[in-house]
Amino acid sequence: MKQELVLITGMSGSGKSVALHALEDAGYYCVDNLPPELLLPFVQLEEQHNASKVAIAMDVRSANSLPLVPAQLAHLRALDVNVRLLFLDATTEILVHRFSETRRRHPLSRQDGAEVLHDQQRDLVEAIEHERELLSELREESHIIDTSQLRSSKLQGYIKSLISAPATQLTLMFESFAFKRGIPVHADYVFDVRMLPNPHYEAALRPLTGRDAPVAEWLADHDPVEKMASQISDFLHSWLPSLSQDHRSYVTVAIGCTGGQHRSVYLVELLTARFASDWVTLKRHRELDVPL
Q1: Phi, psi (5° rounding) for residue 190?
Q2: What pTM value is reported for the model?
Q3: 263-275 and 213-220 helices cross at what angle (nearest 10)?
Q4: Which of 20, 119, 198, 217 is at a distance of 20 to 30 A from 126, taking alpha carbons?
């Protein structure tokens, strides 16, 4: 059996500890804040111990040696290790709120008394933006998970669903969202379906979602909805083979409407069913996961 390595990186305060706990529950041997210099010897040591599933969290506390990581991961892949990179992110506003709530210090916050800024929030925002710069290369190579609106329990479930997919195959994630809450930062492709007929204006359908049969039947009766589904399908069928050959682990297709309740949800359900026979598929409805 091939050894599996899940490397978790991301922004401080984005939920890396929660993700690591989810992987531990899923049977992975987990290590937090491993120095990048120890990545290769640690993975090789665990292979000698017959540990087939390993998860490691790294973050900006090892900023000086993070540039070593991409080459090390390429080396591990050459040794036939299945490597998955997960990058946890959130908006700066959400991260500031989380640090303010917990009163924790950001690892890059200035601590020299001679340089401490009077405006602590400004100091925190600057630290977060600097962290984004330091982690940008790893972020570019990773599957990004936006935790801005994810509760801990939902994040744990999301992580488990991602790592349950076969590591050797591309996983296609369909996600519905509401434009009024912002575009998912982790989306590889975004489709806007706000121009489609809207069940919101039908009183009987308004409280329902795109997963409910009456809404699905109503939308299926409108030709533009099927035209949109077919065009998205054609695009993905054309390019997924190339993405798979490019050694991508995950591709996230985000579909947005105004409220993220009817049209986008319906299309995610429809497309997931259409692609499930040819690809490993997952689905997520962002707004239905958010507490009201």
Answers
A1: -125, 130
A2: 0.77
A3: 80
A4: 20
- Could you tell me the CA-to-CA distances from 28 to 54, 160, 191, 277 in Å, in that order? 5, 11, 35, 28
The fold of 4-164 is Rossmann fold (3.40.50)
Looking at the chain, which residues constitute the CATH 3.40.50.300 domain(s)?
4-164
**CA distance linking residue 135 with residue 40, whole number of Å:** 20
Q: Which residue is it, tokens 């800024």?
A: 117
Q: Are strands 189-192 and 53-57 parallel, antiparallel or unpaired?
A: unpaired
Reduce the DSSP state of residue 120 to 3 states and report it: helix
Question: What does the CA dihedral 46, 156, 259, 280 come to, rounded to 10 degrees?
Answer: 50
Read off the pLDDT of residues 192-227 as tens digits, 9 standing for 90 and up: 999 999 999 999 999 999 999 999 999 999 999 999
